[in-house]
Amino acid sequence: MKIALLGYGRMGKTIEKLALERNHTIVYKTSSGINKEELQQADVAIDFSIPTAAIENITSAFKLQVPVISGTTGWLENYDEVVKTCNQLNGTFLYASNFSLGVNLFFNLNEHLAKLMKNHEQYQVSLEEIHHTQKLDEPSGTAISLAEGIINHSSLTDWKLVEQEDENAGKSIPVTAKRIENVPGTHSISYKSAVDDIEIKHTAHSREGFALGAVIAAEWINGKKGMYSMKDVLQLNNL
Ligand SMILES: NC(=O)C1=CN([C@@H]2O[C@H](COP(=O)(O)OP(=O)(O)OC[C@H]3O[C@@H](n4cnc5c(N)ncnc54)[C@H](O)[C@@H]3O)[C@@H](O)[C@H]2O)C=CC1
Ligand SMILES: O=C(O)C1=N[C@H](C(=O)O)C[C@H](O)C1
């Protein structure tokens, strides 16, 4: 498969290594803006760039009829607009806040736990994410997805970025974001009562899991039309 890498930083480079190991070819890579002639050589584009570039990169791929995978976080307030553009331009799109198999299983576990805890209001839920100090956005896209998973199954209505996890966030889920040198991505969800705590946690040991998930998604989407998610790729819909 011929792949275009839109964003050639930490993730772009890890994806390149895994894609080559899986016998794919990188036909185009960019760290600034799009060259249309080069992008249209690709079977699939993979965007891991920066929040302010993602929408333009994704839209360029739609216009050229190149299926696009995006893992860039920090632009999700415009997600509905991008879905509209994808439909108007008959494009192909898959966004995931986290492409690793482990985190996608963890998303499922989080929703199961939220359902279980729904009627036990003596437990206060909170969410913590830890990432490397170069990360541009906070909270992480993964933390937002986890918060949405809890909101879908509880009486909480929103999430709120707070300094301290015990800060009163009202009907919102308090989310803390810590930045520590070289941490690839750690997410934990705690339910705390006066007498005990329940906690689930996912710790990425490197970027390889994210990159492998993105390449698997690119292989899966090649030749398809429309909007998809990692639930489609990993067939996690009916768990
Ligand atoms: N969904 C997932 O599984 C994961 C998502 N991410 C997200 O992916 C994004 C990239 O992460 P990293 O690779 O760690 O960041 P990075 O900072 O190492 O790489 C971003 C690259 O994008 C380039 N860039 C800037 N403007 C551009 C443009 N107009 N077009 C193309 N490239 C452009 C930068 O020069 C840089 O090389 C972030 O938003 C991060 O949150 C990161 C890891 C996993
Ligand atoms: O910026 C990162 O590094 C990561 N970003 C994603 C996010 O915002 O959730 C995924 C992963 O945690 C690493």
The low-confidence parts are: none
How are the strands of the largest sheet arranged? 2-1-3-4-5-11
The total strand number stands at 11
Quote the CATH topology of the largest domain.
Answer: Rossmann fold
Along the chain, the helix and strand elements come as EHEHEHEHEHEHEEEEHEH
| Radius of gyration, in angstroms, nearest whole number | 18 Å
The proportion of residues forming helix, as a percent range, comes to 25-40%
Q: Can you tell me the overall shape?
A: elongated
- By helix and strand content, what is the structural category? alpha/beta
Mean pLDDT: 96
Core attributes:
239 residues, alpha/beta, Rossmann fold, Dihydrodipicolinate Reductase, domain 2, 36% helix, 25% strand, binds 1,4-dihydronicotinamide adenine dinucleotide, binds ligand LZUJQKHR
What this model shows, in words?
The chain has helices at 10-21, 36-39, 51-63, 79-88, 101-117, 141-151, 208-221, 230-234; strands spanning 2-6, 25-30, 44-47, 68-70, 92-95, 124-131, 158-161, 172-179, 186-192, 197-203, 226-228. The chain has 239 residues and is α/β, with parallel strands linked by helices. The strands form two sheets. The protein has a six-stranded parallel beta sheet with strand order 2-1-3-4-5-11, sandwiched between helices. It is built from eight helices and eleven strands. It has two domains: 2-99 and 207-234, NAD(P)-binding Rossmann-like Domain (Rossmann fold); 101-203, Dihydrodipicolinate Reductase, domain 2, CATH 3.30.360.10. Helix 1 (10-21) crosses helix 7 (208-221) and helix 5 packs parallel to helix 6. The chain binds 1,4-dihydronicotinamide adenine dinucleotide and ligand LZUJQKHR. The active site is at 131 (proton donor/acceptor), 135 (proton donor). NAD(+) binds at residues 71-73, 96-99.
